[in-house]
Amino acid sequence: MANSKYEYVRAFEQSDVLLPNTWIVVRIDGRGFKRFTSKYGFRKPNDDRGIGLMNAAAKEVMKELQDLIVGYGVSDEYSFVFHKDCTLFERRASKLTTTIVSIFTAYYVQLWSTYFPQTPLSTPLPSFDGRAVMYPSVGNLRDYLSWRQVDCHINNLYNTAFWAQIQQGGIDPVKAEEELMGTSAADKNEILFSRFGVNYNNEPEVYRKGSVTFRECELTALPSDTSSSVVLDTTEHSAASDLSSIPTPSTSQARPSYGDDQGVLPPAPLSKTAAEKDRKRRAKARIVVEHLDIIKDDFWTQRPWILTGRAGKPVTER
Amino acid sequence: MANSKYEYVRAFEQSDVLLPNTWIVVRIDGRGFKRFTSKYGFRKPNDDRGIGLMNAAAKEVMKELQDLIVGYGVSDEYSFVFHKDCTLFERRASKLTTTIVSIFTAYYVQLWSTYFPQTPLSTPLPSFDGRAVMYPSVGNLRDYLSWRQVDCHINNLYNTAFWAQIQQGGIDPVKAEEELMGTSAADKNEILFSRFGVNYNNEPEVYRKGSVTFRECELTALPSDTSSSVVLDTTEHSAASDLSSIPTPSTSQARPSYGDDQGVLPPAPLSKTAAEKDRKRRAKARIVVEHLDIIKDDFWTQRPWILTGRAGKPVTER
Amino acid sequence: MANSKYEYVRAFEQSDVLLPNTWIVVRIDGRGFKRFTSKYGFRKPNDDRGIGLMNAAAKEVMKELQDLIVGYGVSDEYSFVFHKDCTLFERRASKLTTTIVSIFTAYYVQLWSTYFPQTPLSTPLPSFDGRAVMYPSVGNLRDYLSWRQVDCHINNLYNTAFWAQIQQGGIDPVKAEEELMGTSAADKNEILFSRFGVNYNNEPEVYRKGSVTFRECELTALPSDTSSSVVLDTTEHSAASDLSSIPTPSTSQARPSYGDDQGVLPPAPLSKTAAEKDRKRRAKARIVVEHLDIIKDDFWTQRPWILTGRAGKPVTER
Amino acid sequence: MANSKYEYVRAFEQSDVLLPNTWIVVRIDGRGFKRFTSKYGFRKPNDDRGIGLMNAAAKEVMKELQDLIVGYGVSDEYSFVFHKDCTLFERRASKLTTTIVSIFTAYYVQLWSTYFPQTPLSTPLPSFDGRAVMYPSVGNLRDYLSWRQVDCHINNLYNTAFWAQIQQGGIDPVKAEEELMGTSAADKNEILFSRFGVNYNNEPEVYRKGSVTFRECELTALPSDTSSSVVLDTTEHSAASDLSSIPTPSTSQARPSYGDDQGVLPPAPLSKTAAEKDRKRRAKARIVVEHLDIIKDDFWTQRPWILTGRAGKPVTER
């Protein structure tokens, strides 16, 4: 029996395919987490259990979606990055965002009791929303991640100074806010050091830098120039090389008069065997969470597989 | 300390605001539920525990998002409908879809042990994806819901016949599929009745009709013509009457020569007091799950508050 | 010889299909017409030659695009309306807007010498930009057109009073603007009448109402209730009935238990013969330009074929 | 008098802003040009008057829209490229496409009599449609243009062989088509040479390569590494440097611990004076139409100002 009578309603679904050859960032945020963290007594300014739970959920998202190349989390938000060549779900924005949000939420709820064994969840449960943003160049993508990490730094310095005044200084929140109004970063460092003996630079990196999640690979067989490419973006032109919808170039391009266009066309895509090998490497690679500076070049040049999207030899789970 | 250096990356976020005055349907689907239900031993063709869990999660979504007017669920999918006047999250598609998916997932995971006490969840956890579709008219919206309910009917009749052959007839799945190939609905009814003594029309309504979720109100003070409007759509022109971004019409429209345009302009929006009262009524109304025909007019004419979006006197939780 | 090597770039074209069952308004505006009209000495506050040229170009657009049901023009802008069932160019926004803008521009330039025989065009030539907006209900569509016509009224009353002071009162523009600052419509009427003996209501309708373009049909065989539908929008539910991409409902809908859904589903689409006859009627109908009130119901109830999208017996060109 | 009563309809306009930092190609196509060229007796396979008219119209488009960096035309189509940093019309797709289509159409109609003095235009007038496509990298953009130029080559070789058979060989179109069916480029070259004495490589470049339109500048003060960048795309990371909506970085970025991120952030934007000087240079630069290979690197490396978007010393109109 057909269902044709009403099926015309499918024509109302509109395309939300993201532009090819752009880096896709899906950022998720906790809904109403100010109230949520207060209800469950999260420690201020940072709660290690809460951070641990966020990172645990993020790792599971990275595990399930192997197209993700890196994640960055701070406070109640987490950003996940799909490689610009990613074709998962045909790059449909709604599928990419809802899938990430759903997996993340599932693990956040399921793993809650591991991190907060004393305080069972009650209604309303924690939940997250999300959105996808496209970045055309590696520079834009890195600037996005830098934006989030600078934000982490700004907020954490402020929060550290704010809560030190309350928790160690014994003043009330209104007074603490007034004290910080209009202060520079140097002022806040000074307040922390002179009044509370806190050297901000000795605070744990997880608080100051946030958390970076990525696959761990070994640096072995990469071509010598690859490391520079992630900085200088010279591979930007290798556009859309893996787009599944793009027909493989025929081998005999009978264009005698048009000459050499090396450097413009996408490089030869991976052979089927190589792609499969690459996929397996990614699947095997251990996913780690670290607290590193992702603004400077070092993070990226030392891990070229993240932006090339080609797995090196994986460091497997131990 | 400002974060302006990288903040330009915000300019890459693109608008995904849905068209005003359209009904918004967010449909979510279980990801890989064929494998998931098999792993956890869901009963075939229908598992009451699984259906109960879906409906429980859907009720919580309806409770948290009071802008939702009705939900419809079958198998591993659930459709949620926002009223055409809804302005939640400024109608941003990504916020609407991810929020629904996240709340649904959270409760699905949290309530799992209530419905499947013997089989704790393990990795990979259940998750859902979702998408938003706009429908400009009540007719389109009702046709969408009819489409889903007809699909429920078609699939359930097939599945009932398919699994009867295997579970009661003792034949294997390949053979069962062959038997049903090319059969009409009447044929399947006949197979069920003559071979297995099953009168399909006596099967539980929850299997044959799926589940409808909505707020329960009393029918008291509604104007006499309201019930017809949900069928005939005569209120369609009361466009965008509640759109928060729309300035309130000034009372003295000095347009002497343009005369009477009653019937075209949006009706006077609810006064602040009335809107607040309406909001409270919605919050108090009991959310029910029933298994009714939503294709025929009856369901809608008997519950005019669903499509008018104006709560009647609520039937509260007992 | 294939062109496959570069053809992957086609994958970057993104869908811009407009939502089905919505009225599509394409509004075009003259680019830099303040300077343009000054350069060519347009008369103030209204230039009959300029208005005539706009209307002539608009008529040609209506002639070439038979899916257009009505146009409304004032000053250097023109709005064109596609019926909600229109499937021209698969409803792609870019095709619809650029085609209208291009046809309009072509005739504006070509017919220029007919309306301005003394002043040949020189660089830069007149040009227009445009955009498409969707309106889900007849009420929204009529409110859009009312918005434009009220704007015409407001601007024309102002301009008439402004230029009367300069042309008849002999004062300079700065002084004229000051005089009108903060005045009501009644004030402006009074200024015109007491100072310059102008009864605004006797000004030509083309200035006060703008120009409406539509196909002229005879009122013969229309069903009795059709006229009310354009006001009350009772036909709103006849969703998407003509969408070419929608499969025709099969005649034997084996859904025995779901009963009567009349009034919800799209009405039977026109048969091929009827559709062809309708198309021919539209092609033959004379396109007229009038200066009527399109805010009140009369315009629409007297010409039901405009919003039903079904041509009556056409009044042909004489 | 306010117009607030109906103004809510503006809320239905949806954003169509194109993604920042992407190259924007607007391609326009003649509507129904097969019939049009036949009606006006265009010569086959190429009509110099028609090509001249297309190029004349394209030059005027380039003159009026100084944000355009290059155009490419063949047959009845023309592609115009906006620089990735372009902020014209806030990058709204509808404004960009309709403006180009309108200017082009205006000049095509106005200049018609210059190129076709014997055959005045009659209804229906020539018109064009258009669409915008974003390309994230220089490689994608160049591949797009290569795609069009290869298409030109393929079609022109075919058409040359096709019409030679008819015009010189005296056979009918059906037979001519049959002869070419399944032939390679070499076959077509051979047919032209052996049967009609035509050496395809001696055909005019305008037919074989199409037409490239761009601003002519002198190569003087450009930094030594600029020429390579247009090939290697090393400047890709200078994202969005000119986006008007992006706040100027504050000079004192108090981020002591995050170190050197040179090479990622956008370069310092041009100073106001420099930007103004650049604008003037662009305005003065002569716009030329040439028939060159734009697939190979040479065209781009010899004219670095095209892709850098920074004008060199202009070659002015003589």
UniProtKB/TrEMBL annotation, chains A, B, C, D:
Origin: domain of life: Eukaryota
GO biological process: tRNA modification
Residues that, per the record, bind GTP: S75, D76
UniProt EC number: 2.7.7.79
Binding-site residues for Mg(2+) 1, renumbered to this chain: D29, G30, D76
Biased composition (Polar residues): 237-255
Keywords: GTP-binding, Magnesium, Metal-binding, Nucleotide-binding, Nucleotidyltransferase, Transferase, tRNA processing
Requisite cofactors: Mg(2+)
GTP-binding as UniProt keyword: yes
Keyword Iron-sulfur among UniProt keywords: no
Binding site for Mg(2+) 2: D29, D76
Cofactor note: Binds 2 magnesium ions per subunit.
Catalytic class of the enzyme: transferase
Positions of the UniProt region annotated as Disordered: 228-282
Catalytic activity: a 5'-end ribonucleotide-tRNA(His) + GTP + ATP + H2O = a 5'-end phospho-guanosine-ribonucleotide-tRNA(His) + AMP + 2 diphosphate + H(+)
GO terms of molecular function: GTP binding; identical protein binding; magnesium ion binding; tRNA guanylyltransferase activity
Domain tRNAHis guanylyltransferase catalytic, residue spans: 6-136
Domain Thg1 C-terminal, residue spans: 140-296
Main function: Adds a GMP to the 5'-end of tRNA(His) after transcription and RNase P cleavage.
Family statement drawn from the similarity comment of this UniProt entry: Belongs to the tRNA(His) guanylyltransferase family.
Name of the featured protein: tRNA(His) guanylyltransferase
Source organism (scientific name): Coniosporium apollinis (strain CBS 100218) (Rock-inhabiting black yeast)
